[in-house]
């Protein structure tokens, strides 16, 4: 399917984190690189993770975060998509 950079928990919520680093802001920078196609791929990969770790049809709450890095600056967007 793909890869997920970090899988963490925030209390009872599973958090799938995409980490992006860009040296410039051209073409939208790190945040702009999380386009709808990338979001769909991350969602499918997260779904596969959940299916392999939870044998029931009920999954725990989940969210997708993005960590965008530009030089020394780090921006963490919770529930980015």
CATH structural architecture: 3-Layer(aba) Sandwich
In the CATH scheme, the class would be: Alpha Beta
Basic shape: elongated
Give me the number of helical elements. 2
Approximate helicity band: 25-40%
Approximately what portion of the residues adopt beta-strand conformation? 25-35%
Main sheet characteristics: 4 strands, mixed
Quantity of strands, as a count: 4
Distance between the termini: 19 Å
Cross-sheet strand order for the largest sheet: 1-2-3-4
Radius of gyration using CA atoms only: 14 Å
Helix/strand/pairing category = alpha+beta
Which spans have pLDDT < 50 for at least 5 consecutive residues? none
CATH topology: Trna Endonuclease, Chain: A, domain 1
Query: What would the average pLDDT be, to the nearest integer?
Result: 89
Number of domains: 1
Order of helices and strands: EEHHEE
Describe how the helices and strands are arranged.
Elements: E1 6-10, E2 13-21, H1 29-32, H2 36-53, E3 62-70, E4 73-77
Parallel strand pairs: 2-3
Antiparallel strand pairs: 1-2, 3-4
Characterization of the model:
This protein is of the alpha+beta class. The chain has a single domain, classed as Trna Endonuclease, Chain: A, domain 1. It contains two helices and four strands. The chain has helices spanning 29-32, 36-53, and strands spanning 6-10, 13-21, 62-70, 73-77. A four-stranded mixed sheet has the order 1-2-3-4. It is elongated and about 45 Å long. The model has no long low-confidence stretch (mean pLDDT 89).
